[in-house]
């Protein structure tokens, strides 16, 4: 199989474990791995020291998270990354549609107990995905 495997990350240990599972799945399938980090809104903060000024936005932070995870996954596969605006589940699904993904990988964080009742990213993705969904066991990542 060729195509793309999409995984959402937020910098947490559980998201990292899901990304590692996505990397392994992409390698086994001969697919590209696309790492995406969501951001809600686009607040911009200004930082400066003397005449040096920096602008840091939510989009920049999300892209940094995605790039950092992508850069550290290694392996013999093609890995791309991006930041996507919106709630995490919605952003992952939009990226999967944009990339014509064959599989989305999400962790199973908050899929039991009260989180299951209130919802989770994995639950929302599983119910609305345009492709197959692989739910990685991430319980021991915290």
From TrEMBL:
Residues 1-135 form the UspA domain. Signal peptide: none annotated. InterPro entries: Rossmann-like_a/b/a_fold (IPR014729), Universal_stress_UspA (IPR006015), UspA (IPR006016). Coiled coil: none annotated. Gene3D superfamilies: HUPs (3.40.50.620). Pfam families: Usp. SUPFAM superfamilies: Adenine nucleotide alpha hydrolases-like. It comes from the Bacteria. Belongs to the universal stress protein A family. This is Universal stress protein.
